[in-house]
Structure formats: structure tokens, C-alpha cells
TrEMBL record:
Organism: Enterocloster bolteae 90A9
SUPFAM superfamilies noted in UniProt: Nucleoside hydrolase
One GO BP: purine nucleoside catabolic process
Gene3D superfamilies cross-referenced by the UniProt entry: Ribonucleoside hydrolase-like
The protein, known as: Inosine/uridine-preferring nucleoside hydrolase domain-containing protein
Length: 343
């Protein structure tokens, strides 16, 4: 079976790192490149974190990393739209320990050796897609700035994208504000451009990712695999579990949703997603309390035609097994991880 060609677009913090590892290690995916964007952390941090993961996997010579947009398209031009008072807590100190979803850098990994490409993300996306046979799936798991800017700069790429599988939004669940999920909230104009692009879009919102929790026991199982990759993934999961127990307790106590990894898993195995519906989805970017909200029109006759598929649930056990089995493919070598696939 031919590998699926994918480009990852990431704002690498803890769950992006797990998603990158899953995508690179799995034999069904061919990761052509990775583009970075401002999101969980500023662009220099998300880029450095991405390079650290690539070095861990020993893929510096094989998977190029391109630095993308440092700021949202419009949102931060109006400071009141990003008022701190509207943001859910992200970091707290408890007994001298910092609890947070994403640290400034992935401190469990050494500083990167691999260098970022000279070409920037947007021209890379345009050039690669225009030269393709329409067989590349984009997997953006951060704010959609890079994808939207590329579409604005070269609209013809929309006809060259096989599919876009996005981590973002929420129907019944939010996180960054009372109305919005972080990735969409960070750059809502970009999200509206991509969701209404006419491309084949699958949106994987919080409704499905929060159904894909990984428990502390399952993290321990991954750690016991004993490879550098497995230990790093377990460290990332454990960091997230502490933060979720503090800020967003899940239905399963002592667990975390590694959002972005579920999106990659769904490209590998679409059956990890459940309750997939074709809906009309738009984004509010009017500067109100609902700024960044993904509005899912559930009416039988929406004002505008359905534009994307949205997954409202997932098969947790299937996802965790796929994640664990893929991490188990990692092997030790003197030069670090090299493709990570058992021959």
C-alpha cells in the first residue's frame, strides 16, 4: 500500500510533539515536511521544539522544517480581543513546581542540532502543493494562519489539496474562553478562510479529542517500552495529566487528551473518529464574547450549505492502542532514532 503523503503544520508544545512522533514513526505516512506557526508558544519556541523532536527521531536529514507566520492574520491588531481576563488559566505554581500544558521549550529533549530551512512555510506550502498531483493531505494542529495565508497568496492550491484534517474548535466543549477552543480563537479569520475554502475538510474538535484521553497507567505502559522516544512521550503525557487534573479535570481521573495525536491517528485510521457529520461550520470573529467560536449549524435547512465534516466523538481504546503500538516501533541506535521502524 502506498504511503499517504502528509504535511504537518504545528505550534509545537506537548501534544504537537506526540503527534509528530506518531506521524513520523507510523509506516503508513510519508511526512514530506513540517511547517511551524505561532500558537502554544511564540514562533521561535514552536520551531525549536519541532526541531528537537525531529532530532530525537533522527530525521534531520529527511524531514525539513519550515518556519511560518509569527502572528495571526488580524486578531492581535485589536488588543481587547485577546484580553487576559477572558483567558482560561494556563500555568500555576504548586509547592514550587510549575504546572502547565506546554513549557517554553521541550526540556526533556536537548537543544536542536538540525537547522530550520531558509525557505519560509507559506512559499513552501504553495510550491509543494502546486508541484504535486493533488495527493497531499495537510494536517494543521495549531492556528490556521499558514494555511490561510497560503490560500490567499495562491488560491490555486485549494484545488491541489487532497484533504485538510484540522485539530480545532468545539461544539459542546471549549477551553481558551467560555466559547472558543484555542487554535481557532488564536486566529479566527484564518480559520474561517480555511473552513470555507471549498477543500475537503475534516474538523476534529474538542468534542472528539476529549473523548480520547490517555491515562497515567497507559502513559506508564508507553514509558516501559524503554526507548528514548517512548520515555519522551510518557514525559509529555505526564506533564499534560498534571495540568489537566489542575485546570480541566477529565471524565477519567488522571488522564489527558493529546489532541493533536488523535488528528494524526485519524489520518492513519479514520475509524478512530466517531459520530462524523457533514455540517455547516463557520467561525465568529466579530470581537464579541463568542470570538473564535466554531458555530455548528445543526438545523435541517442551514442558511448556507454544509462545508466540512466534523467528528464529535472518538474510539478511545482504538486510538490509545494505535498510539502505543506505533511508539513500540521505535528502536534504539547509536545515532539516535533513525526512521524508528522495525525491519
Amino acid at each position: 500500500m502506498d504511503k499517504k503523503k502528509v504535511i504537518l503544520d504545528v505550534d509545537t508544545g506537548s501534544d504537537d510533539a506526540i503527534a509528530i512522533i506518531l506521524a513520523v514513526l507510523h509506516p503508513d505516512l510519508d511526512v514530506l515536511g513540517i511547517t511551524t506557526v505561532n500558537g502554544n508558544k511564540p514562533l521561535p519556541n514552536t520551531t525549536e521544539n519541532t526541531l528537537r523532536v525531529i532530532d530525537l527521531l533522527g530525521e534531520g536529514e529527511h524531514i525539513p522544517v519550515y518556519m511560518g507566520c509569527a502572528d495571526p492574520m488580524v486578531a492581535e491588531l485589536s488588543p481587547e480581543r485577546h484580553a487576559e481576563s477572558r483567558q482560561a488559566p494556563q500555568k500555576i505554581e504548586v509547592n514550587g513546581e510549575i504546572v502547565e500544558y506546554h513549557s517554553e521549550y521541550l526540556d526533556m529533549l536537548p537543544p536542536s542540532i538540525t537547522k530550520v530551512q531558509e525557505k519560509r512555510a507559506v512559499p513552501y506550502l504553495i510550491d509543494t502543493l502546486m508541484a504535486s498531483e493533488g495527493d497531499i493531505t495537510l494536517i494543521p494542529v495549531g492556528p490556521l494562519t499558514n494555511i490561510a495565508v497560503a490560500m490567499r497568496a495562491e488560491p490555486r492550491i485549494k484545488g491541489k489539496i487532497k484533504r485538510i484534517v484540522i485539530m480545532g474548535g468545539g461544539h459542546g466543549i471549549s477551553n481558551r474562553t467560555s466559547a472558543a477552543e484555542f487554535n481557532i480563537w488564536k486566529d479566527p479569520e484564518a480559520a474561517q478562510i480555511v473552513l470555507t475554502s471549498g477543500c475537503d475538510v475534516m474538523l476534529v474538535p474538542l468534542d472528539s479529542t476529549h473523548a480520547g484521553d490517555v491515562t497515567l497507567e497507559e502513559s506508564r505502559t508507553i514509558r516501559n517500552l524503554g526507548t528514548p522516544v517512548a520515555v519522551a512521550v510518557a514525559d509529555l503525557l505526564d506533564q499534560r495529566i498534571k495540568a489537566y487534573d489542575m485546570f480541566q479535570p477529565q471524565k477519567i481521573a488522571g488522564s489527558t487528551p493529546p489532541h493533536d495525536a488523535l488528528v494524526v491517528a485519524s489520518v492513519i485510521d479514520p475509524d478512530v473518529l466517531k459520530d462524523v457529520q457533514l455540517k455547516r461550520v463557520d467561525v465568529d470573529f466579530g470581537g464579541s464574547i463568542c470570538d473564535g467560536r466554531t458555530m455548528v449549524d445543526s438545523r435541517v435547512y442551514p442558511d448556507n450549505p454544509p462545508n466540512i465534516h466534523i467528528a464529535l466523538d472518538c474510539d478511545r481504546q482504538r486510538f490509545v492502542k494505535l498510539l502505543t503500538d506505533t511508539i513500540a516501533l521505535s528502536v534504539k541506535s547509536e545515532s539516535g532514532m533513525r526512521r524508528g521502524i522495525r525491519q
